[in-house]
Amino acid sequence: MKALVYHGPFQVAVEEVPEPKLEAETDAIVQVELAAICGSDLHIYHGKIAGVLPGTVLGHEFVGRIVEKGPLVPFPLGERVVGSFQVACGDCPACRKGQYFACLKGGVFGFGLALGNLQGAQAERVRVPFARQSLFAIGDLPAEEAILAGDILTTAYGGVRPFLSPGMSVAVVGSGPVGLMAQMVAHALGAGQVYAIDPEETRLEKAAALGSLPVNPKAEDPVARVRKETQGLGVDLVVEAVGGDGEALKLALRLAGPGGIVSSLGVPTAEKLEYPWLAAFSRGITLKSALANIPRWIEEVLALQRAGRLKGSWVFSHRLPLEEAPEGYRLFHERQATKVALVP
């Protein structure tokens, strides 16, 4: 079958690879209908994720149909599903506590040795371990909507929903795909003013279309602007949706008002960050940071999608055949694409 294979920093290619096979009674094989390139895939593309070896099939966002399954998989053959980017067993102590991101047996598709060494989903077919807990039925939900539930939309939802009360002020640092989804969720769940902070005007235009107030740090100091509009306080909830070297998180901590919450969703590439302990202590700031907990929140997201309350397919700027996936990575890397869908 054809798949997108990693060969080193900035080196990916579509190649013939072996067909996936069932390895356990809880496995399923999914025929991929649609895959997508995630911002965290770019960290791999840039060579910043240790343990992703040459030959790894990339990708963790996908929808498709079950074409083969083990006897312990409850879905019927042909069921249309979205995959959680996280594989979780559902039975270990962490899963029983609902902390699926910390599953002792789990992993992430296409993210190398540190996260389960699973082959990815930017391919014609993908093996899904623990399918009962890692796949979710989508019925006739459009593929470009459903695929968002498997990662970026539910990541955003889990970073907003537990902390947001109606009328709260929100700042989102980063208006890439996850940041835009976080803004959409905040508006849908009744936030007050939502500030979108990003240096790219094209992204800020999308944020403004959602009803957010765009703030470009190249043009003004975002901390001064937010505090001016919040009686000198700062916002109630800050969503950090960049990750990387930690500069966005530093800004997020400065944007939070007294008693505020900083919800960090971006995938970090730095191991350490200097934390403003005294300032956070004095202002009562809470920092929440973890790998997204997709199985915990995805059913709520799918219900809101089916009801038409969360529609995010507008985030896709490009839809390419799988054969053109390397071009999709280039476009995303050069910020010429907001999000790229891949059709096997």
UniProtKB/TrEMBL annotation:
Q: What is this protein called?
A: Dehydrogenase
- This protein's source sits in the domain of life called Bacteria
Residues in the signal sequence: none
Which PANTHER family does the record associate with it? DEHYDROGENASE, ZINC-CONTAINING, PUTATIVE (AFU_ORTHOLOGUE AFUA_2G02810)-RELATED, ZINC-TYPE ALCOHOL DEHYDROGENASE-LIKE
Q: GO terms for molecular function, please?
A: oxidoreductase activity; zinc ion binding
The record lists the membrane-crossing segments as none
Indicate the family of this protein. Answer: Belongs to the zinc-containing alcohol dehydrogenase family.
User: What sequence ranges are listed for the domain Alcohol dehydrogenase-like N-terminal?
Assistant: 25-130
Which cofactors does the annotated protein need, by name? Zn(2+)
Limits of the Alcohol dehydrogenase-like C-terminal domain? 177-294
InterPro entries xref list: ADH-like_C (IPR013149), ADH-like_N (IPR013154), ADH_Zn_CS (IPR002328), GroES-like_sf (IPR011032), NAD(P)-bd_dom_sf (IPR036291)
Q: Which UniProt keywords apply?
A: Metal-binding, Oxidoreductase, Zinc
Could you tell me which Gene3D superfamilies the record lists for this protein? Medium-chain alcohol dehydrogenases, catalytic domain, NAD(P)-binding Rossmann-like Domain
